[in-house]
């Protein structure tokens, strides 16, 4: 299993747009065979940092998702939402593996 950890720097004035972006990707990742663990939004502390976690059974499955999502119309709409609203300033992606296979 591979888990993707995303750290977003967001525009706090556009939190509603980012929430919509997140709702779309939870559904899309699940549709592409992944397991989305959710988006985690600012509460206390930094107002411009958010996180997301989702997993695929393997790095190969994740790569298939990346390839397929690049041409999927719904995925392109989600990317366009972020681009046109400017709700995401930047993001970082990390790949993690669970200890003992996640048991």
How would you explain this protein's 3D organization?
The chain has 103 residues and is an alpha+beta fold. It contains 3 helices and 4 strands. The protein has helices spanning 15-31, 59-69, 73-85, and strands at residues 2-10, 35-40, 49-56, 88-96. Strands 2-3-1-4 form a 4-stranded antiparallel sheet. A hairpin with an 8-residue loop joins strand 2 and strand 3. It is globular and about 40 Å long. 20% of the residues are buried.
| Rg estimate, integer Å | 14 Å
The appropriate CATH architecture is 2-Layer Sandwich
CATH class descriptor: Alpha Beta
Structural class: alpha+beta
Q: What does the overall shape look like?
A: globular
- The secondary-structure element order is EHEEHHE
Major sheet attributes: 4 strands, antiparallel
Instruction: Compute the number of strand runs.
Output: 4
End-to-end distance? 11 Å
- Major β-sheet strand ordering: 2-3-1-4
Oligomer: single chain
Estimate the strand proportion.
25-35%
Question: If helices are DSSP runs of H or I spanning 4 or more residues, what is the number of helices?
Answer: 3
In total, the number of domains comes to 1
CATH topology: Alpha-Beta Plaits
How would you state the average pLDDT, rounded?
Answer: 94
Residue share in helix:
25-40%
Domain NIPSNAP: 7-99
InterPro entries: Dimeric_a/b-barrel (IPR011008), NIPSNAP (IPR012577)
Pfam families: NIPSNAP (PF07978)
Protein name: NIPSNAP family protein
């Amino acid at each position: 299993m591979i888990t993707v950890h995303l750290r977003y720097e967001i525009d706090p004035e556009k939190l509603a747009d980012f929430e919509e972006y997140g709702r779309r990707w939870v559904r899309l990742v699940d549709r592409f065979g992944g397991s989305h663990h959710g988006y985690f939004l600012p509460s206390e502390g930094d107002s411009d940092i958010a996180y997301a976690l989702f997993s695929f059974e393997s790095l190969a499955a994740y790569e298939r998702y990346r390839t397929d999502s690049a041409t999927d119309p719904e995925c392109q709409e989600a990317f366009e939402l972020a681009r046109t609203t400017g709700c995401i300033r930047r993001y970082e992606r990390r790949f993690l593996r669970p200890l003992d296979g996640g048991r």
